[in-house]
Amino acid sequence: xxxxxxxxGSRWNIRGHISLFAKMNSLILILxxxxxxAYTYSNxxxxxxxxxELQSSSARQLTFLSGQIDSRVSQxxxxxxTFSKDPNVQDFNGLNLWGDAYxxxxxxxxxxxxxxxxxxxxxxxxxxxxxHSQQNHEVISNYSRGGGYDxxxxxxxxxxxxxxxxxxxxxxxSYFYWFYTDSLGEQGLLTGSSLVVEASFSSDNIRNMLDxxxxxxxxxxxxxxxxxxxxLNRTADPQLSKALVGYLDTNPIDxxxxxxxxxxxxxxxxxxxxxxxxxxxxIDVVPLGQVLGPIAFSRNLFYLSIALLFVxxxxxxxxxxxxxxxxxxxxxxxxxxxxxxxxxVRLHARSRNEFSFVFERFNEMSRRTxxxxxxVFNEKIRAREATLKQLQAQINPHFxxxxxxxxxxxxxxxxxxxxxxMAFNLSAYYRYTTRMEKEMAPLEEEVRLLVNYxxxxxxxxxRIDYRIDISDEVRSQExxxxxxxxxxxxxxxxGVAKSYASGxxxxxxxxxxxxxxxxxxxDGPGLTPEQYEALNHKMNEELQEEMGCxxxxxxxxxxxxxxxxxxxxxxPSPAGGFRTxxxxxxxxx
Length: 589
Fold this sequence. Notes:
The chain is of the alpha+beta class. The radius of gyration is 58 Å and the shape is rod-shaped. α1 (4-84) packs across α6 (203-215), α8 (288-339) packs across α9 and α10 (416-433) packs antiparallel against α11 (443-460). The strands form 5 sheets. It has a 5-stranded antiparallel β-sheet with strand order 2-1-7-4-3. Strands 9-8-12-11-10 form a 5-stranded antiparallel β-sheet, sandwiched between helices. Strands 14-16-17-19-18 form a 5-stranded mixed β-sheet. It has helices at 4-84, 87-93, 95-98, 101-119, 151-157, 203-215, 238-250, 288-339, 354-412, 416-433, 443-460, 472-475, 485-494, 529-538, 549-562, and strands spanning 128-133, 138-141, 163-165, 175-180, 182-183, 186-187, 195-202, 222-224, 231-232, 257-263, 266-274, 281-287, 440-442, 464-470, 478-480, 503-512, 515-522, 567-572, 578-585.
């Protein structure tokens, strides 16, 4: 079990291992993290403000452009309405009924002059007008037009809405046109004598306004109506426009809305404003990367700088750790090992610096301490062995007297076999115990000694029985002499001898997992759990005056011979009595 000082030292060692390195890295994080968080927040605010302003600006400009187009269209519709009420226009519808040739010529001239004047009001938005008399089947226009209108064509287009595409017989696929007629206050009703006004304008009008819009901004505007070819500005990217039209065909956008769309691996802000008259949408496409790119570049540059700064900080921290913290940790671990009793520890420095001098002084201190401890320990061992031999000298005569008394009694009773058996076992027993020239002996010889001793006890007390079951691997091990016999003697004296019934001693031995174990069980009275715990605890303490030295000395001999993982353990036996386990670490398993 670890002492309190060892546990405290271990915890201090762990803290020391991470303290300086962790503190420096934590300081670097504490310095950098607030800067990164503040910049990230500031960058996000800037990004959202710029993005919001971009969306608002795009929506305002597109709404203004749509308003201009709707204003032009509205002017054309207002002129058509007013023009249809003009007296000359009304006269034109009935000239074939009551007018002569001169009147017809004058009326046609006046009507055409008004249409030309209205068409030429502005160069930005040229428009075309056509007046058709359903009653006279005559047409007046401010542009070259061949023939009148087919009645079916007129009926199809009298829908009060602007159409886009081919006019009848015009061959012009890119014109918007609108028909108006007012028959007895009901617009769009053809009576056979109606006067029809057609207003139209070219898609180039919208294209010109898209060009002007694009020159003042960063977008790429176009006019879109599902099912028709889009009207692009003259510098539009055909590939981008085609991709966006395909997207809008499958993912319709509201007439007035904004959406961020990913096309060709890039994000675009798509703004839409619906026309009040043309039933289409003005679409503006703004590449977000082009507008927000400088912000993103500045953000990435900042993060790269912070990453480099962090790497430099960690490198400096690692350099300090390797050259300062690691030697200190090595010195701390060395001191803790010395504190635990390992004086063989030596420290080595990889480079010649201040720590190499400290390590040399530490090694010298550890070496001298180890020499002193070994000398003291050897003196204690010799003193304990002398005490053990003295105790054996005191005990052996009493054992001898009892055996000789048994021989005398058996001889008087003429029990020759008992006398021979006792004499043989007693002779073998003392022959082995008096051979002190070797400190170690094969366990097989110790087993033969146990047989001699137990046969002697069995002759003296017929109630005692024993079994020995020790494997050949264990029998071949070498152990300190007279290590098992005192344990068996305790089992005889304090175990089965105190029972009035028959007693049995079981001795087993085996090797596994690098350890050899000999287990000695008896069926005597045993101890309480508290007594077992106290006895095991005393084995690891200093020898006290009130303690018997036999078990303690055997435990210390095992530790000294085989290492700190060897010794004695005590506990209850399955047979109901006392169990002793002798275990040691074996280098052969």
